[in-house]
Amino acid sequence: MHYIYNISFFLLFFFISIFLNYYFAPIGLDLYHDGTQAKSSIDLYYGKNPYSETYVEYGSLTLLINSFIFKLFDINIIFLKYLAGFYNFLLHLTFLTFNYIYFKSLKISIFLSLSLVFFENFTDKNYFDISNSHLTILLFMLASLCCLCFLRYKKNIYIYLISFLLLLSFFNKINYAVYTYL
Fold first, then answer.
1. CB of 58 within 8 A of CB of 51?
2. What is the pLDDT of residue 1?
């Protein structure tokens, strides 16, 4: 019975978070960040090289993922807005995991995570810009979660995961100046 109870709480959190993220994702448009990310992603989609043939404001990982989304669906900025909503959902899931490891109570974890979901969605109407901040925060939070798991479970695999996630985060925020030295 306890297992079904936990699953039902998790599914409730899952559906509320997905619904709110996908409801609010297409609302609002940040012409600077959304426009530069979309334009650079479209350039990559058409085969241009980052930094030499197209403008890359922050890093190339987000642009590569965005151009992949364009290949899967269509060249439309709405898909990038939904991708930002998906990143935000993954952030909420990571936050839920942090809380569950810390408090060891699914009810408290879901309550805190839903508080974050409602706070974000109802306080900032343009929270879902398609800049790289969602992916960077997600990668950093996952690396922090791996650090917490390493400290708790003493498994060396978490050290490798931390390194890999921070490397991805680095390539998501890096600018062209560092590539000139490589």
1. no
2. 47
